[in-house]
Amino acid sequence: MTDFIADKTFKGVDFTKKRLPRAEYENCVFETCDFSDGYLDGQNLMECIFTDCNLSNTNIANTTFKEVQFQHCKMMGLRFETCNPFLMDFTFTDCRLNMCSFTGMELKNQKFKDCKLIAVDFSNSTLIQILFDQCDMEQAIFSNTDLSKANFNTAYNITLNPEQNKLTSASFDLKSLPGLLTNHKIKVVGS
Fold it and tell me: What are the pLDDT digits (tens) for 70-93?
């Protein structure tokens, strides 16, 4: 039987030496905790908030993230496609997600705000109504990705091939046009 932990705050805990006990966590707050290169696999996290945490290269296999918020976190190298997809829902605000993988995932209405998404792999994913607000998308990989109704209006450093991705009703700022034409070797110059 799995333990149930609710309404608890974990502050400044180093989970690299001793892992977070396996349990169902609801409405918990993790503040300035270090999970880097550690294990968060098999956890059930519901309505939790991670603030100023380091989760880089953490094993998140089979973890359930339901209504989880990540704020000001370092999360490089995470493989989100290994998570439990059931009820998956998270929001990222001012996080560094460089070199993370969302390959083959189905996400709807997820929000990325003020994030670094450098070299993130979104290949073969369905990302419907995703918001990329003020995100750095440099070298992000989009291949066979459904970006229907995605909002890239304030995102920057975007490079993707419209012929290899579904962009129905996706929105981009005019400044993103060069990144959408890179594959065609067309040079766009401003007036």
Answer: 999 999 999 999 999 988 999 999
Q: What is the pLDDT of residues 175-184, one digit of tens each?
A: 766 666 566 5
What domain count does the chain have?
Answer: 1
Spell out the residues 6+ positions from residue 100 whose beta carbon is closer than 8 angstroms to its own: 75, 76, 77, 78, 79, 80, 117, 120, 121
How is residue 25 annotated by DSSP?
A: E
The tokens of 35 are what? Answer: 């999970």
Distances (CA, A) of 46 to 67, 102, 129: 6, 20, 22
Q: Is residue 168 part of a domain?
A: yes
Range of the domain at 153: 3-184
Across the chain, which distance is largest between two alpha carbons, in Å? 66
Unique residue bearing structure tokens 């990540």: 70
